[in-house]
Specification:
Helix content is 5%, strand content 63%. It is built from 3 helices and 32 strands. The two termini are 44 Å apart.
Length: 673
């Protein structure tokens, strides 16, 4: 390419010189050609900054009032470096709020031949610590007797939570003067800390039941590394990649229980002398994937692409394995600029295998006796065909339509009481329209129909849609409003009690959401923002229970209603009264309630499922920030947040949520060069 360009340039130069010589031969001999100008990269001054400060916090009651904040005092640190010493480009940003919460971003490039990006982030997740306190007298709930002293309690002042760290590193290498690349991507997530585990201990549903609360160690690491190459290969572009995934549980098996002789109607194992057995085991996983992607180099009216992928995953703990095969293709046709259509086909094969039995002493527990007759996992073939189209009749309007068909064939589904096959058909439509120069509209509708749905949560048919308006009546005023809903219905449910189908009628679901945001820029120094959001979910379906342990006469509770509602109101103001001073203040108020119909399951009175499930929360949050510029490129910053979580029902039978308040303060000093 470079040699051809030089030949063309030389020919043009000789031609121009010949014309000039013929028109002015004498002057051509006397004149000297000026040297061509030399181009230089623009000089960009590097910039640096350094921030130091301190993070202060305190709380009262539950730490969940600040669920994603580290509630311990800690120094903070930050800074950035941006430099362009061509051909190098460097960008580094670090923001360490406290010892558990940080953000970092490193970008480096050498010309366009080497590109490096590394992004890291961490946060702390707080959990409630619930103390299990038995009553003074034995209490019977649904046939289970809790005697004084049964509960193993956790210290309510003990903190439960873990730090979640996640990030991505990528490297791309480009061949000089040729469209070929090699790349490596690595992704990870690390969770480290402790959580409270609550369960019914002893011998499960047989005897010697205890309510147990214990600390469980969390030390989980997930990694995914991908390497590959891509290049132009004549009329197509192709890419091959290989990835390796690992999930390791370095905490090991941290949940086990002491079980005594089981006196139920069926004796699963002989524990007359007592058995120590594991439960809630977190498995270790590993897997790999090979992927080939191909698409045409031509970008005209007809473009095609295809993807082929083979992957496998092994459960190192349970000895189960799964293989996945994927083949997909797409053809995009654009006969005119106003119309685009795409036809897509996707085939998936899932081969899932598990051992038929587990040996004595499984997972190194000597009391674990052999288990046989394990049901085979479900494998499946999935075929999906979809068609989408988009048409722009005018510059103000775009309409779209889509249709899809999905069919699943399952193997070994009968052993699990599932359908051997399920089909799903869907139709959709969308509209984007500029109603005027100040008002625009977006709308979408989708219909789905299922044939032989496998799970009770799947509908026979569903309708969903949403609409939004953006209005800019003034150059400084923007209004957004949106509403969406989903309706699902199911005629018959498969509810089993001791293997007997109780003949439940159906399930109806209604979900809706509404949002509104108003932003008003009063001046260059003052802006206001207000928002409102509402979410609602309602489910009505039959629920089945065993009737006093008699499987031949199950109890059916018809038309049980469950609902949850959430409202959020928020407002904020940004104000800069002085050139060197910037202020921000905001408030957010959230209300939520959830629960079953209070009359659910009268057979379980006086303790009903409805009373156990009711929840009513109120959360209020305030935040304030100030930044003041000092001489010598210094800046002083201050941040304050206050959060209040209130469980309004104070439901003693559902202590999952506890009241709490938390405050966070942060003072920083920043220097720029």
């Amino acid at each position: 390419m470079r040699g051809g360009g030089m030949k063309i340039t030389g020919i043009l130069f000789v031609a121009a010189l010949t014309v000039f010589a013929l028109s002015a031969p004498l002057r051509a001999q006397e004149m000297a050609f000026e040297e061509a100008p030399v181009h230089h990269y623009p000089e960009i001054e590097p910039s640096y900054s350094l921030t130091g400060g301190y993070w202060l916090s305190n709380f009262k009651g539950s730490r969940a009032a600040a669920e994603y904040y580290y509630l311990e005092d800690s120094p903070s640190f930050g800074g950035h470096v941006i430099a362009f010493p061509f051909p190098h480009r460097i960008h580094l940003e670090v923001d360490l709020l406290n010892e558990k919460d940080y953000f970092s971003d490193l970008r480096y490039a050498y010309k366009d031949l080497v590109l490096v990006r590394a992004v890291g982030r961490s946060l702390f997740h707080n959990f409630n610590a619930i103390t299990l306190v038995p009553g003074e007298d034995p209490v019977s709930i649904n046939g289970v007797v809790f005697a004084p002293g049964d509960a193993v309690t956790a210290d309510q002042t003990e903190s439960f939570g873990y730090r979640a760290s996640f990030g991505e590193v990528s490297l791309r290498l480009k061949a000089p003067d040729y469209p070929a690349h090699a790349f490596v991507k690595a992704w990870y997530m690390d969770k480290d800390g402790g959580r409270q585990r609550r369960f019914l201990g002893g011998s499960a549903l047989f005897n010697d039941i205890e309510r147990v609360s214990e600390r469980s160690r969390v030390n989980w690491l997930t990694t995914d590394v991908e390497a590959g190459v891509n290049s132009h290969l004549g009329p197509v572009e192709a890419q091959y990649s290989h990835s390796e995934m690992r999930f390791s549980n370095d905490a090991g098996i941290s949940a086990f229980d002491y079980s005594t002789a089981q006196l139920g109607p069926t004796v699963y194992r002989d524990c007359a002398g007592g058995c120590v057995l594991p439960h809630n085991v977190i498995p270790e996983l590993e897997g790999s994937t090979d992927t080939v992607k191909v698409h045409t180099s031509y970008t005209g009216k007809l473009v095609a692409s295809a993807t082929f992928s083979v992957s496998g995953t092994d459960n190192e703990t349970s000895l189960a394995s799964a293989d996945y095969y994927l083949a997909s293709g797409e053809v995009v046709w654009t006969p005119v600029s106003k119309f685009t259509s795409a036809l897509r086909y996707r085939y998936e094969r899932r081969d899932v295998d598990n051992p038929d039995s587990l040996p004595d002493g499984f997972l190194n527990f000597p009391d674990f006796t052999a288990v046989s007759g394990i049901r085979d996992s479900i494998s499946a073939d999935i075929n999906t065909l979809s068609l989408t189209a988009r048409y722009r009749p005018t510059s103000r309007m775009t309409v779209g339509a889509d249709a899809s068909y999905r069919h699943i064939d399952r193997e070994d589904a009968g052993a699990w009481g599932l359908e051997d096959s399920t089909s799903e058909a869907a139709l959709g439509a969308s509209l984007r329209m500029r109603l005027s120069s100040k008002l625009s509209l977006k709308a979408r509708y989708r219909y789905k129909a299922y044939d032989d749905p496998a799970y009770n949560t799947q509908a026979d048919d569903s309708h969903s849609g949403d609409v939004s308006l953006t209005w800019i009546p003034l150059s400084r005023l923007t209004v957004f409003a949106g509403y969406g809903l989903t309706k699902e219905s199911r005629d018959n449910l498969h509810l089993l009690t001791e293997g007997i189908d109780v003949g439940a009628d159906g399930r109806d679901v209604f979900r809706s959401r509404a949002t509104a945001v108003v932003t008003y820029v009063l001046s260059e120094d003052l802006s206001l923002t207000g928002s409102y959001a509402y979410w609602e979910s309602r489910v009505e379906q039959d629920v089945a229970y065993g009737n006093n342990g008699d499987p031949l006469s199950p109890f059916l509770d018809p038309g049980v209603e469950y609902g949850d509602n959430t409202w959020n109101y928020a407002a904020s103001v940004d104000y800069s009264p002085l050139e060197q001073l910037a202020l921000h203040a905001g408030v957010s108020f959230t209300k939520a309630k959830a629960g079953f119909d209070p009359g659910i399951a009268p057979a379980l009175q006086p303790v009903s499922l409805g009373s156990l499930s009711r929840l009513k929360l109120r959360e209020t949050a305030y935040d304030f920030e100030a930044r003041y510029k000092l001489p010598e490129d210094l800046a002083l910053g201050f941040r304050f947040e206050y959060r209040d979580l209130d469980e309004e029902l104070e439901n003693q039978q559902n202590p999952e949520i506890q009241d709490g308040t938390a405050q966070v303060y942060m003072v920083t000093l920043n220097k720029r060069w």
